[in-house]
């Protein structure tokens, strides 16, 4: 599997320009390094059972994390360290008023890296420091908000924010250990500082973590599905094919069939990496969430990069909540619910729509600065609104709350979700216009209807 993942690109990419060819020559090396770190984490994470003592565990997390980052990105890591330091000192300086300024600074640093990538590596999917900086932005802003919350009245905070308050800022050593925890620096997940501190200090639910063998095997077994799809099937599909003459000459049904297949297979590539990340979190014990109050069984869902059952959820909201799950939690609690509270939602506040659109917009900025990203996230935001409306129709009309209407909702959402993927997976704006020309813009018109 390892050697298949770093093999040459599919034949359809061999006729690209010389600049693009250089990009594709770098991709096997990038992919090889990426997979090496994912696999190595499965082994190294097991040593947390034998590494004890707060500062010893911090050192183990940090040294290996920095080694990973240097191996993957080389001296580019200096940029992310500078941004992280600037945000840390801003937290120290502003204390209870640090949340918004740190949020802005972290995003400015991230956008600087995104712009640099777009200028020097336009449209390519090579591995660069932006991948890491996206994860660190979530962690830095979560810490800033949690620290800022300690200066607010508890009753003004929702339960999630109360549970993750940081009373005292960690020192620099603890801060960088939190940011560069090695099982998470490659593909996530992101997490709150309070949870990480409990894991490192082996307290509360982490005081007596049971065997991690079975939960790790359960997590890894999911790649029996997604890894073969990524390695064996995906190379026979290309998102670039949708702007070719051959695609244009296909029937509408064949075009849609191809788009649905390529979008699903491209998501499988992400699931494969996230499943490895979930497995490493389970092996380390960080995923342990104590015993269920109802079943008394051990739960392993404290930190989860993604849940592949997103593919079989009925509604857009359920799907989004499980896709890139840890980042969705960050978007929900550190962006959406910072704009609109639970109480306002229960009262039917008009701020809910604004909060949703703002969250999708910021998610677009988080991913990059390609114009196509903003089109994709606006498209998906409207799709979420449509899905919510369909859900309300079902709930308010018992005659329609049946398997047939749910199936209609399921198919409709999947159809437009995957069609919107063309905007995300093909960030080249010229290619997007070519695709719209070929399909006569029927995807956008269909969503509008």
Unreliable spans are 1-25
Average pLDDT, all residues:
87
Q: How many distinct beta strands?
A: 0
Q: What is the 3D form?
A: globular
| Helix count, DSSP H or I runs of 4 or more residues | 21
- Give the termini distance in whole angstroms: 44 Å
What value does the Rg take, in angstroms? 22 Å
Q: What pattern of helices and strands is seen along the backbone?
A: HHHHHHHHHHHHHHHHHHHHH
DSSP helix fraction: 55-70%
Main sheet properties: none
Derived structural class: mainly alpha
Strand content: under 5%
Task: Please outline the helices and strands.
Blueprint: H1 2-5, H2 18-44, H3 54-73, H4 77-94, H5 99-120, H6 130-149, H7 159-163, H8 172-179, H9 193-201, H10 213-221, H11 223-233, H12 245-248, H13 252-284, H14 316-322, H15 325-339, H16 342-346, H17 351-367, H18 371-396, H19 403-425, H20 429-439, H21 442-448
Account of the 3D structure:
By secondary structure, the chain is an all-alpha fold. The chain contains 21 helices and no strands.
Keywords summarizing the entry:
449 residues, mainly alpha, 21 helices, globular, disordered N terminus
